[in-house]
Amino acid sequence: MSESHGTEYCHQAEIQRLQGCIEELEKPDVNHQQQKESLGESESLFQYLFEQTHDAVFILDLAGRHIISNQRAATMLGYTKEEMASLSVNETSAEREKSKSVLERLLAGEHIPLYERLFRKKDGQIIPVEINAELIRGKNNEPIYIQSVVRDISERKRVEQQLRESEFKYRIVADNTHDWEFWLSPSGKFIYTSPSCKDITGYEADEFKRTPHILIKIIHPEDLAGFLAHQKDVAKKREKGEVEFRIQKPDGNIIWIDHVCQPIFDDNGAYLGARGSNRDITRRKIMEAELKEANEKLNAHICEIEQLQSELREQALHDPLTGLYNRRYLNEALEREITRAKREDHCLSVIISDIDHFKKINDTYGHQVGDKFLTEIAAIMKNYARSSDIICRYGGEEFLLILPGATKAAAMKRARELKRSCAGIRILQEGKRPKVTLSFGVATFPIHGQEAGELIIKADKAMYRSKDLGRNRVTAWDEKGALS
Questions:
Q1: Is a pLDDT exceeding 60 seen at residue 158?
Q2: pLDDT tens, 222-241?
Q3: Could you read off the pLDDT of 243-281 as tens digits, one per residue?
Q4: What would the pLDDT profile of 78-90 be if each residue is shown by its tens digit?
Q5: For 483, how many CA atoms within 13 A lie in the half-sphere containing its CB?
Q6: Geometric angle at alpha carbon 352, from 346 and 358, rounded to 5°
Q7: Is residue 321 part of a domain?
């Protein structure tokens, strides 16, 4: 008998103790009045315990006929207490032969542990019961009657049946699913593994049941720490967890597993173990890796394309020989800078320059020498430029500078510095050192014009005025429309 059953039947020991008291009171050396009083008290206490116990109590004669039973027994079987007095074991038991066997074994002096039987109620309904039967002896150790403490276990049997049905249904599903279903004991031992375990891992289900910590042994070393951390996390949070890891099959192949584990607790919070499933996700992992690799290649290709596009944009806006902005960029830049100058109420100057007699240089020394002069002039212009200045190669041998915030005087000074520096360029060619000069024209916003096109025209006309005046000079468009 379990500890819980012993607790439930504790009244039986008290009943026997009271019986002993009654027997003691029957001894002749006790005062008769005291005997009567003690007997009355004992009988009252006996009756109280007899009726208040939560279980049905039957007192039977040695033939199995009811002598007395408590109200709980009558209620359990659907009889009145008066009706119970005329019944025998054969009339209340749905298993007469088994009941007869129990009586015979008790009378033979055999101790019978807690057992289960079926009782028949007055209305014919059959109920399962749990019985603790004892042979009660008199003062000379002779058998006098049988005491049975009986519990209706219908509800427990119903729950057990539901559990069996639930387990049966789960096993049907688990045994036929492609996933590897499992149950774990509180110690982590596999209690059940579905047949698909073999298909996934290469190991028989019985190997997981009989081999301690087999799962940990076959997990890939690089994934073991993550799996152990997952186990601790599930136990700590007391809720379902999921983790992915690799395992090595007996043939050496490595596969990926998606592991889902749900801890199970009873109503008192005691850990009963866990249940869950493992799924082979190797194919998905391979596809993910292939997709990742494809995305990386695609991203690299996109970066290459973007780089090429950036380079093409730069090439579309820059002169390939000098690296300066080209005429295409100039138009957009000058419009933008004039708009800013209007908004911020600043001035802006434009300088146009042209190499004097450049055709003669090309014809005399060749285009390679001409190109060298162009690159040297571009380098000087970059050297003199501020970070806000914009320098463009405007034509074959023409350069245009946009100077945001520069007055006419500042632009004239810059043009003279550039004229002087460029005049010092020497290119060694066939023992000779040819040189070039530049003519400059200046126009300033807003005094010389309000729009980009107007400023360029006036700066260009000022530059040609420099050429008309003998070249190698700087000329500005004046405010009255005359050239100065």
A1: yes
A2: 999 998 888 888 777 778 88
A3: 999 999 999 999 999 999 888 887 788 888 888 888 999
A4: 998 888 878 887 7
A5: 19
A6: 165
A7: no
Residue 220 to residues 180, 182, 209, 245, 257, Cα–Cα distance (Å): 18, 20, 20, 7, 11
Under a CB-based contact definition with an 8 Å cutoff, are residues 361 and 376 in contact? no
Distance CA 177, CA 281 (A): 15
Look at the chain and report how many structural domains it folds into.
Answer: 4
- 254 and 382 in one domain? no
Task: Provide the pLDDT for residue 472.
Answer: 95
Sign of CA dihedral 412, 417, 418, 424: positive
CATH number of the domain residue 74 falls in: 3.30.450.20
Strands of the sheet with 398-404, listed across from one edge: 390-393, 398-404, 348-355, 438-445, 474-476
Beta-carbon-side half-sphere exposure of residue 358 (alpha carbons within 13 Å): 20
Q: Give the predicted TM-score (pTM) of the model.
A: 0.44
**Do 88 and 80 touch, CB atoms closer than 8 A?**
no
The answer to whether residue 339 scores a pLDDT higher than 90 is yes
Q: Rounded to whole angstroms, what are the CA distances from 321 to 112, 374, 375, 397?
A: 113, 8, 7, 12
Residue 481 placed within a domain: no
Separation CA 197–CA 117 (nearest Å): 41
pLDDT at position 334 is 94
Number of alpha carbons in the 13 Å side-chain half-sphere of residue 441: 27
Which residue range(s) make up the domain with 300? 283-315
d(CA 386, CA 323): 17
Do 446 and 368 lie in a common domain?
yes
